[in-house]
Amino acid sequence: MAYASSPASLSLLPSSSSSYSRRHAVPGAAVTLPGRSPVRRLEFIGTVGGFLLNSHVASKIRGVTRMMRPGLRIVVSMAKRSVGDLTVADLKGKKVFVRADFNVPLDEDQNITDDTRIRAAVPTIKHLIVNGAKVILSSHLGRPKGFTPKYSLAPIVPRLTELLGVQVQKADDCIGPEVEKLVAALPDGGVLLLENVRFYKEEEKNDPEFAKKLASLADLYVNDAFGTAHRAHASTEGVTKFLKPSVAGFLLQKELDYLVGAVASPKRPFAAIVGGSKVSSKIGVIESLLEKVDILLLGGGMIFTFYKAQGLSIGSSLVEEDKLDLATSLLEKAKSKGVSLLLPTDVVIADKFAADANSNVVSSSAIPEGWMGLDIGPDSIKTFNDALVTTRTVIWNGPMGVFEFDKFAVGTEAIAKKLAELSAKGVTTIIGGGDSVAAVEKVGVAEKMSHISTGGGASLELLEGKELPGVVALDEAVPVAA
Ligand code: AMP
């Protein structure tokens, strides 16, 4: 690759920090921002470590207050009672309905090609088993239309049995007399997997009668399906009306600890890296993060809308013409909030959208006609890395380029490697779902991150400051002394 011209400086440096008082407030102290109601800063503790270590962190964060655009819901309290709060006295001999997420990829022969979601469900199930509960597992798989053998949960049984060390039984349905018989025969510590709950259209409609039938199988409820927590379905929301207590599983709790807890009360400096194809799909996330971060790094296809808004030529790069004003207003907002927003100063351009395209590296201000930007360039990688080493918390959502093509995966892979390196040095690194997760997995550094979100849509909604129906429906955590 040739370097065609020197990089243009498009970085917006931090302003004289009108938000100084917010950024330097003492954890736990109430601070008032001009024109805003008081905000209690809450210290986030226990950033790295295992599931169990983190499982109570969110429950210590009371009433996380979010500042958002006018018209959006303002207060989110995601502090939920955790399955870890339930002891043998609460669980022994009790039938527990666990909504898990076993929506794993299968090949044509019904072999599981990635068991991440099954492994992620194990801590909650084991906690219930060792405390003598009768575990009734529910999940969806794929998007079936009625009873479809292809979408049966049967392929999950051997792997789950192996991971739990307990033989998992499987029902052929998720409600009805046959299922009731199997539940009645479950010993303490036994595990029964119900059939795909989406075989009933009532599931996604959150039909109260269907929810009641599901709930009638059990005494209490645990939601550990973060990936579907942004949907109000019968097994994620409806059942909570009939089962008490309704609590969060360890996986769900961990997602909240990081995506709500660490984001609300980060160790600073706090940086967000946002990439992906379009600015329109990330507006909510960018706006929400601009309220919280010190540094915002932008990459991916969305940068060209920002460039164009600044009057630069972008060749045939991806652009959203109707979002130029929005891009300008986001840049202005970053400046007024004292957020250091960095746009890539150079890009890798291609003569066509293809893995074997001819490529070149040019300054962001020198993209020739007929060429499109498909990755961030080497100068930008260096600038981004230099910014990242100053941070103590980083959240990443969206690739820096078309990482599906090896030739244009360099920027995304460099960020993944840098975050792995920082993680080892104690920086809290959060990968917020979707393609960024695929990227860190591709580079082989997934295990090194503080947290990898298991839910694409759900994590985006949380980062936008939205409430997730499957979380809202759970019991509030018992208040802790301030
Ligand atoms: P998203 O789902 O919005 O996070 O977008 C992810 C997609 O953005 C990936 O499939 C990438 O290939 C794509 N993407 C990243 N950078 C670019 C770019 N410069 N031009 C076009 N698509 C891109």
Task: Please give a structural write-up.
With 482 residues, this protein is α/β, with parallel strands linked by helices. It folds into 2 domains: 83-255, Phosphoglycerate kinase, N-terminal domain (Rossmann fold, 3-Layer(aba) Sandwich); 266-444, Phosphoglycerate kinase, N-terminal domain (Rossmann fold), CATH 3.40.50. It contains 17 helices and 17 strands. Strands 5-6-4-3-7-8 form a 6-stranded parallel β-sheet. Strands 11-10-9-15-16-17 form a 6-stranded parallel β-sheet, with helices on both faces. α4 packs across α5 (156-164), α11 crosses α12 and α13 runs parallel beside α14 (410-424). Residues 1-77 have low confidence and may be disordered. Bound molecules: adenosine monophosphate.
Summarize it:
Belongs to the phosphoglycerate kinase family. The protein is 30% helix and 13% strand.
CATH superfamily of the largest domain: Phosphoglycerate kinase, N-terminal domain
Query: By helix and strand content, what is the structural category?
Result: alpha/beta
User: How many domains?
Assistant: 2
CATH class of the largest domain: Alpha Beta
CATH architecture of the largest domain: 3-Layer(aba) Sandwich
Mean pLDDT: 85
Biggest pleated sheet:
6 strands, parallel
Percent strand equals: 5-15%
Anisotropy-based shape: elongated
Strand order of the largest sheet: 5-6-4-3-7-8
Low-confidence stretches: 1-77
Give the cofactors and ligands: adenosine monophosphate
**Tally of helical runs:** 17
The end-to-end distance, rounded to whole angstroms, is 57 Å
CATH topology of the largest domain: Rossmann fold
